[in-house]
Write a structure and sequence with these properties.
- The protein has eight helices and seven strands.
- 43% of the residues lie in helices and 20% in strands.
- Strands 3-2-1-4-5-7-6 form a seven-stranded mixed β-sheet, sandwiched between helices.
- β2, α5 and β3 form a beta-alpha-beta unit.
């Protein structure tokens, strides 16, 4: 928890539940212990998406398809979500959920590892005005250059779970050995992302921390 427990409890109580079939998908994922974005992340993402009304969304880490389905709600007419998932089980669940929600025509599911999928998308000249990264945390630093390259001017990159329950601020010797690679890579990612030339970035302590990065329009220094 990143903020005072009493304040966190109050803020939790202000959050509306996700309704309908999408809410059922979210709650089932929670019950099964499968990765899904937090309610606070849903609230912030919804605000950003309403303001942006993206036409081309890229998601790195589809899971059961909850967040991709959320993005599809806010697409501009004719827009599409491209989402990457490497695990067959998760991809299968996502396909089922997209079909139930009737949004198959708005989703392109890339069933591959992001290590291969991102270079291919970049080489194909694909561009996106909204990118959401929520995958293997130790790989964020490797995927950042592709995200920046494919992000349109004025586009928004959102990266989830960047504060690692606050441990990202700890001294290195306090990190258990099995987590040290993720710790080093996440710190490198945050330091790099906050200093990308031509981009404007901020870290928001919502959920387990989200990084927001806007690619500047031509002419903005």
């Amino acid at each position: 928890m990143l903020i005072d427990k009493q304040l966190q409890g109050y803020l939790d109580g202000l959050l509306p539940e996700v309704g309908g079939l999408l809410g059922q998908i979210q709650r089932r994922a929670y019950d099964e212990g499968l990765p899904v974005v937090s309610d606070h992340a849903v609230a912030l993402l919804s605000v950003l998406l309403v303001a942006k009304r993206p036409t081309a969304v890229l998601e790195i880490g589809c899971g059961v398809g909850f967040s991709a389905a959320l993005f599809a709600r806010f697409l501009a007419p004719g827009g599409r979500v491209t989402t990457i998932e490497r695990y067959d089980y998760m991809a299968g669940r996502a396909k089922e959920n997209f079909a139930k929600l009737g949004i198959v025509d708005k989703i392109r599911l890339v069933e591959d590892d992001a290590d291969r999928a991102l270079p291919k998308l970049a080489a194909d000249g694909e561009c996106f005005d909204f990118i959401f990264m929520d995958c293997c945390k130790s790989r964020y630093i490797s995927y950042l250059p592709y995200c920046v390259e494919m992000l349109m001017p004025g586009g928004l990159l959102v990266v989830d779970d960047v504060l690692q329950s606050g441990t990202v601020a700890w001294d290195f010797d306090k990190i258990v050995k099995r987590n040290r690679t993720t710790y080093r890579n996440m710190r490198e990612f945050l330091e790099t992302a906050m200093g990308v030339q031509g981009c404007f970035a901020s870290i928001v302590p919502i959920g387990d921390g989200m990084l927001l990065c806007v690619k500047g329009d031509t002419g903005i220094e």
